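hiii so um. not sure if this is the right channel but i have a protein structure encoded as tokens and i wanna go backwards to a sequence. like what aa goes where. can anyone help
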């Protein structure tokens, strides 16, 4: 599709909201692969819906937050602050810190989606969840080199995001409706964490990736007591810094051996 044709489309024709992508094989492939972990996503969404209502929000408030925010960790972080009467800036700062990982996701996805108009890129970013990004990054290590490859990558991400959105939203709404029936003690939300952990482990295919996982995990635990979930920021910064140094050292060592 030409740049002019893309620019002529309304901004909401992005990701799985674009019917033209549904016909591409990559769309079905992305949907099929994410469906393998959809149960964990649903369990996570179910317990998030339950937690929001039991945390003090009305069903309507919880429903609006689910639809508008679409970020489980940010929702769970913001609810007790909202109910406790915290200032708006504190709520926003806490949600921002928890979701800083999406800044990293966006930076990585930018070259893949740079051919799209800004409005469609923004909507695609909003509709992209953790596991959708992880599966996409594993499937496509490099951006497409031509229009056909870029379109296939866009379709794969759309299919993946569609399954993620459907299971998350459906389960969250169900959790809101059944909030007074499902006890948090069931611990179903942990299934989502396990699903993400399993996929993350499958991505540890090089020593640099293993190092980044170990450093970020240790840093997150070490900085656990920081407010506003800032331990996540510390973990990201530590992993990036250590891996940049490690990559430079290992590259220099390989160059020295080659010489």
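sure thing!! here u go:
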């Amino acid at each position: 599709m030409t740049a002019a044709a893309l620019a002529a489309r309304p901004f909401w024709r992005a990701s799985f909201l674009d019917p033209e992508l549904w016909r591409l094989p990559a769309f079905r492939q992305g949907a099929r692969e994410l469906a393998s972990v959809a149960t964990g996503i649903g369990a996570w969404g179910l317990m998030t819906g339950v937690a929001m209502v039991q945390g003090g929000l009305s069903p309507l408030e919880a429903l609006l937050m689910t639809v508008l925010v679409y970020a489980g960790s940010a929702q769970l972080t913001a609810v007790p602050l909202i109910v406790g009467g915290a200032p708006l800036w504190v709520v926003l700062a806490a949600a921002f810190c928890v979701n800083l990982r999406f800044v990293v996701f966006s930076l990585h996805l930018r070259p893949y989606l740079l051919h799209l108009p800004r409005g469609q890129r923004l909507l695609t970013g909003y509709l992209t969840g953790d596991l959708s990004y992880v599966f996409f990054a594993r499937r496509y290590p490099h951006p497409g080199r031509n229009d056909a490859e870029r379109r296939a990558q866009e379709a794969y991400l759309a299919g993946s995001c569609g399954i993620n959105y459907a299971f998350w939203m459906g389960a969250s709404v169900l959790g809101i409706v059944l909030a007074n029936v499902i006890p948090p003690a069931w611990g179903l939300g942990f299934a989502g964490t396990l699903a993400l952990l399993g996929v993350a482990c499958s991505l540890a295919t090089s020593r640099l990736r293993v190092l980044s996982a170990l450093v970020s995990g240790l840093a997150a635990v070490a900085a656990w007591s920081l407010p506003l979930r800032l331990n996540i920021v510390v973990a990201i910064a530590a992993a990036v810094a250590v891996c940049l140094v490690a990559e430079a050292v290992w590259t220099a060592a390989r160059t020295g051996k080659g010489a």
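oh and The chain has a mean pLDDT of 85.
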